[in-house]
Write a structure and sequence with these properties.
- The structure holds two protein chains of two kinds.
- Chain A is built from one helix and no strands.
- By secondary structure, chain A is an all-alpha fold.
- Chain B has a domain at about 50-185 and about 200-225.
- Chain B contains nine helices and no strands.
- In chain B, helix 5 packs antiparallel against helix 6 and helix 5 (about 125-150) runs antiparallel to helix 7.
- The longest helix of chain B has about 40 residues, at about 200-240.
- The two termini of chain B are about 40 Å apart.
- Classes of the chains: A mainly alpha, B mainly alpha.
Chain lengths: ~35, ~240
Amino acid sequence: MNPWPFVTTAYFVTLAGGALIALLSYLAMRRAEK
Amino acid sequence: MATLHAFANPARFLKIAKPLTPALFWAGVAMIVLGCWAGLTQTPPDYLQGETVRILYIHVPAAWLGMGGWSGIAISSIMFLVWRHPLASVAARAIALPGAVFAALCLMTGSIWGRPTWGTWWQWDGRLTSMLLLFFVYLGYMALAKADADRGGDGRVPALYGIAGSVLLPIIRYSVVWWNTLHQGPSIGLTQSTIDGSILWPLPIMLAGFTFVFAGIVLMRMRTMLAVAKSEARMRRMARA
């Protein structure tokens, strides 16, 4: 079984999830502090 | 303790949080980039797991933050109930969503790691099931905190729930010791590890990076909640005038 699809998917899911929650939190903060 | 009380003042907190938010966030991002590069290209494959061992560098930080987030909620809840610090209640509510996201990411990366190493995406064993329970407990906390805020509650019920939920943390930690599970036993301790140093060294970089990013996100969410509360208070004053 080729391990790389599993490794890259795991990294993508974590980095995308982290980036998404950071972006949403940042946008909400900017809107609230305006 | 006097310092802690001083930071409970929202104005003083904001003065510190405003420069600290981008500093923590971008320092964390830089460390994650460095950790990903090191974890994906600079470490050898494991003699048993091969290249899939590289999932360790994102799975462990996600688990650390999923559990660490709830520790933060429990500590903030105790501070709120004992000292009535309004910022402690804000901190607990700010931690809940990122904590739930990282608990979910821990479950997802664990599942992706399980398929090539265990031959299955999911197993109802002690560690996986207790971590899934923690995720549901996070969802319960968020629903409860929202309901409490909507009915104008004083935040005591979510705080009690936050403390009660912390009973899951030792269960998750020791699940691999108490039950014979598919998940491996404890391999990383405070002073020693069963993982070879040539594979382990990017992990502290990733743990620190994700922790800094998590702290930056929590500060953003606390600032949002404080700004919304300030705006609502202003609207109420205007309505009364």
